[in-house]
Amino acid sequence: MLAAPINPADINMIQGTYAILSPLPAVGGNEGVGEVLEVGRRVAALKPGDWVVPVGAGLGTWRTHGVFPEEMLLKVPSDIPVLCAATLSVNPCTAYRMLADFETLAPGDSIIQNAANSGVGQAVIQIAKASGIKTINVVRDRPDLPKLVERLMALGADHVVTEETLRKPEMKDIFKNIPKPRLALNCVGGKSTTEMLRHLQPKGTMVTYGGMAKQPVMVPVSAFIFRDVRLRGFWMTQWRKDHAQDQESLASMMDALCQLIRRGQLAAPACTEVPLQDYKEALEASMKPFMSSKQILLL
User: Fold this and answer.
1) Rounded mean pLDDT of 42-68?
2) What backbone torsions phi and psi does residue 233 show, to the nearest 5 degrees?
3) Count of alpha carbons within 13 Å of 153, Cβ hemisphere only?
4) Minimal CA–CA distance to 123: which of 15, 236, 20, 200?
5) Is 209 considered catalytic here?
6) In terms of pTM, does the model score above 0.85?
């Protein structure tokens, strides 16, 4: 293994609260990039020197070496930065699928998302920007808010607002220049979701892919009756299961993302590189509030 991030789902698996739990004893980590050192005689698709990422969840990437069946690995280009490769198979794929699969978006359309500083949020901003789609990005208020806003705007965000601003009249000013969003992306839940939903177009779709607030998604009855909004869920692991026999869809998505990386239109999220032996500090840092830098274990 070369590098592997610490994602919220990894922590949830360790805590026993995730939908997939590896049989114990287990190695943590669902994402990362490795280099093939040796292959068996019957391996056809991989060779020594290839870079690979996990096909599915539960591989256990927080390790220096591993022996895996060929079908559990997917070859990725070795001409992209190692941190991009290490963080490619979860967050950018989630962002790509949510932007592509729920609403037919065209240049000039807009989307709204909360937790915009998350790994998925940063990928959404960049992929949308490359497609000409405007983004309204919601973040929690924090001491270093101006610095965070500057960083997200540099990635291509069109608007960055706090959760409190969602409830204020100045939101109307945003929609003088761009249309109301047809797609909302939610990974928080609770009040953040309810307020974000207010700004969705009639017949728009809100996709929930996480629940950081550990609160239910609350939707007014009027939003269903009078605006016919649609609520959907998305889980990248399930998408991979559903498309296990559709390698063309997977290959097309990975190729599109790698092309964006090569063109400088998709960068890895803000990262802190940590040697494997310092994993305890990395785990602690990953669970701190307002942590905008993803912990990457160097293996």
Assistant:
1) 96
2) -125, 155
3) 9
4) 236
5) no
6) yes
